[in-house]
Amino acid sequence: MRKKILTLVLLAVNLAIILAIGLIDPHIKELKGAFKRFDPLWLVGGFGLMLVFWSMDACKFLVSLRLTARAPHRFFTYFKVAVIGQYYSAITPFATGGQPMQVYYLGRYGVPGGTATSVLVIQYVILLICHSLIYIGAFITRSAMLLNHAPGLFPFAVLGLIVLLGLIFSVLAMASHNKRLKRILYWGLRLLCRIRIVKHPLRQWRRLRNAVEDFHEGLSLLHGDRRTMVLLVLLTAVQLMCFFSIPFFVYRSLGLTGASWLDMTMVGAFIQVMVSYFPAPGASGASEGAFYAFYPIFFPAPFIFIAMLMWRILSYYLNIAVGGLLVFSDGIRNLSGKRTPVLGRGPAKP
Q: Is the pTM higher than 0.85?
């Protein structure tokens, strides 16, 4: 019950932020003109992008777990797990709730907890690498555009690049030196404890050690299977490009032309990096602020608020609506006694 109340409170806060932005926006009175050339087909296309986004997530599970005999092999099963994961990511700070719930649901479908955790860690690493490559490409090819139209945001773009490069270096270290990495993490954790940045060192050390072990277990599952790794990279790239393309479909739905799909998609990559580490669920506040900061490059001033609202509905609130519906229907099924059979060992605790 507490979780449901907390979810409702978070949604209310998110909506309050959007309402406040709308009231502050001096161009809100000109909103009527934004719908004169409205084309709903492009908005339907934006919804289609989210369907592809979820489907790519489901396909990644299908590809990653196809070697596991006890894993289910139905697309809709993984589609459900993917959407529910996005739902819990959307309602938890730093999107921390998605993967543990996916481990839980995969366990109900017979995937051992250790296997599910390892696969999710590998998928996250591939997601990080693909996002980094897209971001680096955007930085190289679109930084001049950013300097010309929004010079104040350029330092944040550089900071995002530094963070991503640091994460890639960490991933490569994890892949190549297990014992050495554990030693570095241990001493780094001790340093953070001494300067009182990190509390409960033993608990944090267990988490770090388990994360490294899960990563190497995932690598061992896919060891030598280059075809699977390449396929996971391609699926992840398509997934990310669909997500980053949503603002362009919103742009075209408002009857606007002139901006290129590639320019708007690359800006989407910039925004996602900058808001990813904001602690609020759904990066509320930061996401809306980033949209207002970046997208005046493409949208006329009277269109910014409605464009931001449509973008958030498609990219964020749709996850909550569809995921919440699946969670609710699953709860009703359990209450009615139609529980999903567990075929293998249950999941490890998230």
A: no
